[in-house]
């Protein structure tokens, strides 16, 4: 029988290719267990999960103590994150530029920076609006590539391999469909549980101007209740989605399987101390990162902004300066430098948080066996 295979994805056929090529496609995330395949010499289709050399029996998990199978303390996670970042700094920095330059383009189109003065009579697609639109599209397209790239580069460094930028971007691009689908689910869920509650709360408060005080108080209380429920739901979503990016690459899972594993790991209570559990560590990591970024960004921005207000002595003068900033007629080099400095600071530090969450995910996995981590529809490990 032929050892060459044809793969069918969304009605399109690829191949025939040999098993080595299929293995490479699997490694790049281009073939999943549920994809249809058939031998070149056969007409009957089956799934990729039935190819023993590809998906089963699976290789043995890394031995205990291996970088991908090692429990880490909180301090070790932080220290190793910086070590990994240093080992592949160029690759991580190129990745973060993918999601730093587009929003910078959008921000620089603001009239406050004076690069694109906004005329009152301007309508339609002005240069500023076109650049802002292109920046937004680039951010949406680059975001899944950035997320996949962080996972790939971190694992490559942990396993002792050199990270090459071109190869990293190619592999991350191959994972674009998977990360894009999961991003729609995750960020769409955040949006739904944010937009609708806030819209309901605002409608209750906004429509209560001409009603009795008792009804007004009731509307305010209902708005606070709705917002409280929304905050609780967002917190629960954050916990459930804590590791969806890592599950999508390291465990090679897609869709509900990635979300199932993320929820199982994040909500595990197998560790008696709460401070050792994944959600608490994740929240602390994110909080430390935000504080550091805000502090460094403020250090880069405040000296430049203070020069704008150094001779201001009254509230009226502050308002005049603020209005002049929002209606600049010429490029303001100091404000532009302030924005770029802040963006560079965030770009330099953003990969560290992504690396730390990969290490946190690997730490959380040590509490589970390979059998527990296998999706229900796959052969047991």
Q: What do you see in this structure?
A:
- With 381 residues, the protein is mainly alpha-helical.
- The protein has helices at 19-27, 52-55, 74-87, 89-98, 101-108, 127-158, 165-174, 176-206, 213-240, 244-249, 255-266, 278-309, 315-326, 333-365, 370-373, and strands spanning 5-9, 12-17, 36-39, 46-47.
- It has a four-stranded antiparallel beta sheet with strand order 2-1-3-4.
- α6 (127-158) packs across α7 (165-174) and α6 packs parallel to α14.
- The two termini are 27 Å apart.
- The mean pLDDT is 78.
Give the helix/strand layout.
Blueprint: E1 5-9, E2 12-17, H1 19-27, E3 36-39, E4 46-47, H2 52-55, H3 74-87, H4 89-98, H5 101-108, H6 127-158, H7 165-174, H8 176-206, H9 213-240, H10 244-249, H11 255-266, H12 278-309, H13 315-326, H14 333-365, H15 370-373
Antiparallel strand pairs: 1-2, 1-3, 3-4
């Amino acid at each position: 029988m032929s050892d060459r295979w044809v793969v069918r994805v969304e009605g399109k056929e690829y191949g025939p290719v040999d098993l080595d090529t299929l293995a490479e496609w699997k490694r790049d995330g281009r073939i999943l267990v549920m994809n249809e395949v058939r031998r070149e010499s056969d007409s009957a289709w089956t799934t990729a999960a039935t190819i023993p050399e590809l998906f089963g029996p699976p290789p043995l998990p890394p031995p205990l103590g291996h970088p991908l199978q090692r429990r880490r303390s909180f301090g070790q996670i932080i220290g190793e994150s910086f070590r990994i970042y240093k080992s592949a700094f160029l690759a991580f920095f190129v990745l973060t530029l993918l999601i730093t330059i587009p929003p910078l383009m959008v921000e620089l189109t603001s009239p406050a920076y004076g690069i694109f003065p906004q005329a009152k009579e301007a309508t339609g697609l002005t240069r500023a609006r076109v650049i802002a639109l292109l920046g937004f599209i680039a951010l949406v397209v680059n975001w899944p590539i950035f997320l996949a790239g962080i996972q790939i580069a971190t694992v490559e460094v942990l396993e002792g391999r050199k990270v090459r930028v071109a190869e990293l971007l190619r592999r991350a691009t191959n994972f674009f469909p998977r990360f894009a689908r999961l991003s729609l689910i995750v960020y769409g869920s955040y949006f739904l549980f944010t937009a609708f509650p806030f819209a309901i709360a605002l409608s209750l408060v906004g429509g209560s101007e001409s009603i009795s005080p008792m009804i007004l108080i009731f509307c305010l209380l209902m708005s606070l209740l709705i917002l409280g429920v929304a905050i609780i739901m967002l917190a629960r979503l954050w916990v459930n989605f804590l590791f969806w990016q890592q599950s999508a690459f390291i465990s090679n899972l897609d869709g509900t399987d990635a979300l199932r594993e993320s929820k199982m790991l994040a909500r595990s209570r197998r560790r008696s101390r709460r401070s050792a559990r994944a959600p608490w560590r994740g929240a602390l990591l994110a909080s430390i990162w935000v504080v550091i970024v805000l502090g460094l960004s403020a250090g880069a921005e405040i000296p430049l902004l203070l020069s704008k207000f150094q001779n201001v002595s009254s509230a009226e003068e502050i308002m005049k300066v603020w209005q002049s900033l929002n209606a600049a007629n010429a490029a303001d080099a100091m404000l532009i430098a302030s924005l770029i400095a802040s963006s560079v600071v965030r770009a330099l530090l953003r990969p560290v948080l992504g690396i730390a969450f990969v290490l946190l995910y690997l730490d959380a996995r040590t509490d589970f066996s390979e059998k527990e981590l296998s999706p229900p529809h796959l052969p047991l490990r």
